[in-house]
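wait is this the right file?? whatever heres the structure
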């Protein structure tokens, strides 16, 4: 499949370039192509300053629409009672952007960042998937801790979910973001945090809409349906739930 996709990238780029001449605006990145959208986040000075201050790699630039959704959720949860939780952190790019955008360092809230920093545990891998090497690079945990060293209220917690949650976790949660590439791990996080989500909290599922992570979507749909909730699938591949 990878070879087929790579073979057609050139033709796809040519088609997009041709269509771009017919529209006022175009977005192409993160497996998403849109035409004639307002893309108001480009006009949001606070968001763009935070994004540009943290973006390093070329691939991070393509994630801007996904980051806008994350930042929107964070902004709307700042007025809710409870702390923030991030399950699956990698280098902390999303949190760094949104934290800067809302000046999280000046907040009384705590933001808990959970990650194994060594990839998905073997017994939590989705069917037919392997843990990616980039999620198990040496020094990831130290890099993440350095990134948030200036934030007294950002807690980087190394460990496996759900076990590590018994050691350190907030009692009330206003924002919960799951991005662990694992149906078992995310189902366990939902089971643990669901009773702790405050009224009006937001649950953001990073992998929900991606075909490659359909196992997570099915597990999350099953969990939420019996609790009277449904997921809004976004074109970015994310899933949004209002609690």
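ok assuming it is, sequence goes like this
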């Amino acid at each position: 499949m990878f070879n087929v996709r790579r073979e057609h990238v050139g033709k796809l780029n040519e088609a997009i370039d041709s269509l771009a001449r017919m529209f006022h605006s175009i977005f192409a990145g993160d497996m998403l192509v849109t035409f004639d959208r307002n893309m108001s986040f480009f006009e949001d000075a606070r968001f763009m300053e935070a994004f540009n201050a943290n973006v390093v790699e070329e691939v991070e630039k393509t994630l801007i629409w996904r980051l806008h959704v994350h930042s929107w959720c964070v902004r709307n949860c700042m007025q809710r009672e409870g702390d923030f939780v991030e399950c699956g952190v990698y280098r902390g790019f999303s949190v760094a952007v949104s934290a800067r955008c809302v000046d999280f360092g000046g907040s009384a809230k705590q933001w808990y960042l959970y990650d194994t920093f060594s990839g998905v545990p073997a017994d939590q891998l989705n069917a037919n998937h392997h843990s990616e090497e980039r999620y198990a690079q040496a020094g990831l945990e130290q890099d993440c801790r350095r990134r948030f060293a200036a934030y007294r209220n950002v807690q980087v917690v190394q460990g496996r979910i759900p076990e590590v949650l018994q050691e350190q976790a907030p009692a009330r949660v206003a924002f919960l973001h799951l991005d662990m590439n694992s149906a078992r791990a995310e189902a366990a996080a939902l089971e643990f945090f669901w009773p702790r989500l405050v009224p009006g909290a937001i649950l953001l599922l990073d992998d929900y809409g991606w075909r490659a992570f359909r196992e997570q979507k099915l597990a999350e749909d099953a969990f939420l349906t019996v609790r009277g909730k449904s997921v809004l699938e976004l074109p970015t591949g994310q899933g949004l739930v209002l609690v």
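The mean pLDDT is 92. so i think its the right one actually
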